[in-house]
Specification:
The chain is of the alpha+beta class. Helix content is 37%, strand content 18%. Strand 6 and strand 7 form a beta hairpin.
């Protein structure tokens, strides 16, 4: 992976935005890592991996958390093997079905973003994919930033607003996200009581691909 910084991981937008089934951030990161291994395995559904490497990549220290993530994917038909224990020296063997549904669109980020999880966490990874899902990189005539409200982001990713704000800051500190903030502005209109009406524009979120 280190020798190919142009390798991209493609995630269905339905998974990023919890449109097909609900997926917490740890499970999302697990899915993302399996999608990377699947691609590196020439789209072979049979995957082998050492759970130690798995945990280190995703910065998950607890075996129980990892088992829970794999169980979530098993229940949703993304992996076909029920895994209740990890061999100490042998790899885990599982069958990975990346899209057990009809998908309409994908969002992609460089595979090297997996190296950033130790700094940005699984939630940071999820938020980056979420913002990127609003951007059409193939059409430069379109806006190259995302502008969902914090409330919408929190609702679609099933996290609270404070967590969104916290990880936005972490992503900024790691130079993976640029945020342009907008204050409340008067739009030049008065209401029927002759009081000025104000409008609040959503922040703009630029995902900085060159730093991944």
């Amino acid at each position: 992976m280190k020798n190919n910084k142009k390798l991209l991981i493609q995630i269905p937008n339905e998974i990023i935005k919890n449109k097909v089934f609900m997926m917490d951030s740890n499970t999302f990161a697990t899915y993302t890592y399996l999608k990377y291994l699947y691609f590196r395995n020439y789209n072979n559904e049979e995957i082998e991996l050492l759970h130690r490497d798995f945990k280190n990549t995703l910065n998950i220290s607890d075996n129980r958390t990892m088992k829970k993530c794999l169980l979530n994917l098993y229940k949703q038909g993304i992996i076909l093997d029920y895994i209740d224990s990890f061999p100490k020296r042998k790899p885990i063997k599982l069958t990975f079905v990346p899209e057990p549904f009809e998908t309409q669109s994908f969002t992609q980020l460089p595979a090297t973003i997996l190296y950033k999880i130790n700094n940005i966490g699984c939630i940071g990874l999820r938020i980056l994919f979420y913002y990127e899902s609003f951007i059409n990189r193939n059409d430069r005539s379109e806006l190259q930033f995302a502008f969902p409200s914090i409330e919408t982001t929190a609702m679609e990713l099933n996290i609270n607003k404070e967590t969104v704000i916290q990880y936005n800051k972490i992503l900024q500190e790691n130079k993976l996200l640029k945020i342009t903030k907008y204050e409340i502005e008067w739009d030049g209109v008065y209401n029927h009581l002759d009081k000025p009406l104000f409008i609040k524009y959503n922040n703009h979120y630029d995902v900085i691909l060159k730093n991944m």
